[in-house]
Amino acid sequence: MEAIEAITAQTKAIELWDKERKTRVLIDVPIWNATVANLTLMALGSSAPEILLSVIGTLSDLEAKPSKLGPSTIVGSAAFNLLVISGLSIFAVGDEPKKVNDVGVFAVTSLASMWAYIWLFLVLTVWSPEAVSLAEAWWTLVFFVCLIVFAYTADKVNSCFERKRRTHEQIEEQDRQAELNI
What we know:
By secondary structure, the protein is mainly α. It has two domains: 1-98, no CATH class; 101-182. 72% of the residues lie in helices and 8% in strands. It has five helices and two strands. A two-stranded antiparallel ribbon has the order 1-2. A hairpin with a 6-residue loop joins β1 (11-17) and β2. The mean pLDDT is 80.
């Protein structure tokens, strides 16, 4: 996890100029989008033991029926993270009000979580009981890529709205200052 944090904490310097292009300022910006990093690297890093258990169990004997331990561990870990860790995190904050900073990303990930459990149910009980076809595996990967794209888009839309809100507040503050100076 520390290695993943080191990777996602990397920044690059970009230069910004004022409107007259007279003053140059260098600022550090993150290389990784926080939403994408959390949905990919952080999730992979925290779930690596379960994923490796499943892969090793499957690859140990490709002809035999794989153990249910790997997939069950992955689903159990995901459910634990979604329900128990989220609940304990909210409880630990105390009585102060809780606020979701980016409702769009929250909605995308919440819907994707619900869809993941529905998809898993359909794959393992309805379409190909107790097996996963190659097409279902590919569709699962496609859904993951869609989740990343939709969450990234929601994050960028939220950033645009936040910038507009801040700009609007700055303009209002400048108007107030101008009125006071008159």
